[in-house]
Amino acid sequence: AAPGSGGCAPAGGGSVPVLFCFSVFARPSSVPHGAGYELLIQKFLSLYGDQIDMHRKFVVQLFAEEWSQYIDLPKGFLVNERCKVRLVPLQIQITTLGNLTPSSTVFFCCDMQERFRPAIKYFGDIISVGQRLLQGARLLGIPVIVTEQYPKGLGSTVQEIDLTGAKLVVPKTKFSMVLPEVEAALAEIPGVRSIVLFGVETHVCIQQTALELIGRGLEVHIVADATSSRSMMDRMFALERLARTGIIVTTSEAILLQLVADKEHPKFKEIQNLIKASAPESGLLSKV
Q1: Which entry of 111, 121, 125, 225 is annotated as an active-site residue?
Q2: Known catalytic residue: 172?
Q3: 49-63 pLDDT tens trace
């Protein structure tokens, strides 16, 4: 019997019934016989993932009949008989450090389309910076995922932005970029930890994408000089809101130099040349 599991009768077959409790919820389910901590966590995420704040830490506890209360899951615990477990959030503030490495980073380019050109403030500037970011991604071997909002009506990505080598270019009607095709593409890239996000509009598609991504446990960097809206007020308040949630609001130069990290990096000179060829400073960064 598993330690402290309360002495219930063993379940037959290859799975064991388990009652999964989180907050005010309790859901009967099952796990394979001999499942341990990692499988229990995966099961909790599959059952309650939409309610769990991935930025917080948790402890799994087991209901122990001998104590008539929950205890911390014993070390090396394996499920081999019916039991009741719960996930308890720890009240710990976790600081997002925002470290970037090319091997764990993906760039998201959101809806940089022709029909937005006359409406979006500083659109020419964010196109120029967006193109520089995509050039940097190609130099550093970073995958790029691109979406286009209803391209039939709003046109394709602007011609100035070169999508050569993009891992995925996908149309959408949903505001968030987190589509099934995008999630499938991310699943094909091992070790993704950080998303660098830019495009339009800050307070709609960028904001909704960023919130969905952090809800999935990914770290999000929004490139302020490559992100805009029709209204600078909408843009400003969106960036402020997102920064309060732990999303990193930064600049294209900071992103590119963080990714090379060292003057001795073999691509440093090429990245430096991209930065030197940057667009003139616009009013974007004075509005953050």
Answers
A1: 111
A2: yes
A3: 877 766 567 889 999
